[in-house]
Design brief:
The structure is a single chain. With 239 residues, this protein is mainly alpha-helical. It has one domain. The protein is built from nine helices and no strands. The longest helix has 27 residues. Keywords: Membrane, Transmembrane, Transmembrane helix. This is DUF4386 family protein.
Length: 239
Amino acid sequence: MSTEDTVGTGGPARPDHRPDRRPGERAAPVRTGSPVPGGAVAAVAGALVLTVCNVLSGLYPQSGSTRDAIAWFAGNAGLVEAVAATGLLAVFLLVPGVWAVVHRLRAPVLAAAGGWLMGTGYLASVVLSVETLTVLSLLAADADPGLLATASDEHAPATAVALYVVFGLGALVGTLLLGVAVLRSGGPVWAGWALVASPVVRMAGLFLGVPLVGPPLASLLIAAAFAGVLYGPTAAHRG
């Protein structure tokens, strides 16, 4: 035990000990655990569910027009619905889980900015799942795939387009900032770099035409990083 762990000769110091505290002054609460019930589990589980979603969506055709994609949806409705369902479940777990991670970091402004962007980005992705489910219901009612494609390509509301942008930028930039916050907080270095690398790996996989590799691997990096921050050997000692 080092001298920093003791107060005079009185034995181990309490975690909230401050020699300069005035008599009667209450100690500031020590942040241990998660402010969100089940948040730590939700964070890791959400990233793993997102991995499954990425694997399933990686089976989508990577070429062709919007009309071709919608026609493909009609013949693969079960898979498409599974992608939408896992995407929604991932969001429901990740959004509260992100704040459990933010709570553990000692770079409050940077961590909050990253958590806010990441959480908002994935929340905006709900529109993609709902849009997909709506297309499936219209196809089941024998809607014309060509008409649906025209509506998607030429008549998408500005709000919907804005949500797509928020999803993309929020999820990518937010994850990057959260990784930097982990590094600045003295958290596991490998976890911080895993979060920083995640958006790079995701975009590289999409641009290089390997959607079954890039996005799933990026989500696994998030899951591993969250586990390292929340369950690592020093997790209980970080503020």
